[in-house]
Amino acid sequence: MNLKLQSLFEMQNELDRRIERERGLENEDLVDKKILALQVELGELANETRCFKFWSSKAPSERSVILEEFVDGIHFLLSLGLILPYDVPQQMQVPELVQENLVDAFLKVYEDLTNLKNNREDVNNYVTLMEDYLMIGRLLGFTSEEINEAYLSKNEVNHSRQDQGY
Q1: Are 136 and 69 in contact (CB under 8 A)?
Q2: What does the pLDDT average to over 94-108?
């Protein structure tokens, strides 16, 4: 998976600046809130995949629902990269499959979020988080093209929601 991030960061920046301006948040430190938001989105994604629900035989949600949840996390991941004090790589490579299963991959991203919260200044914590989150996408079988298209679609929805006073 080779994801070109420049345009996604630019779109996320536009959305973030709009929200901050319209909500009067330009001078607030939103890092912890965005970390928590990403943790919640990660949980919602895990819930849709049902990868941890060993007690249930119910199938995962439809692929489109899982992709939308994955992209919700991408929004907050990009948003964090925009407000932390370093340049984010414009293109990231997801390493070969390191995690063998989704449960391990989800737990690794939770660990990465804790590391980022505890040490915001180290760009490597963010890069690791980004790579590990994209690993979940790889394990779910999403292509870069699918992620880009789903992000564009959800970004439009998010702007529309702001138009409606969401």
Answers
A1: no
A2: 80
Average pLDDT over residues 60-81: 96
Mean pLDDT of 124-142: 93
Helix/strand/coil (H/E/C) assignment for every residue in the chain: CEEECHHHHHHHHHHHHHHHHHHCCCCCCCHHHHHHHHHHHHHHHHHHHCCCCCCCCCCCCCHHHHHHHHHHHHHHHHHHHHHCCCCCCCEEECCCCCCCCHHHHHHHHHHHHHHHHHCCCCHHHHHHHHHHHHHHHHHCCCCHHHHHHHHHHHHHHHHHHHHCCC
State how far the Cα of 63 lies from the Cα of 116, in Å rounded to an integer.
Answer: 29
Residue 92: pLDDT band (50, 70, 90) is low
Give the model's confidence band at 162: pLDDT under 50 very low, under 70 low, under 90 confident, else very high: confident
**In angstroms, what CA-CA distances link 115 with 74, 86, 108, 112?**
18, 16, 10, 5
Whether the CB-CB separation of 66 and 45 falls below 8 Å is answered with: yes
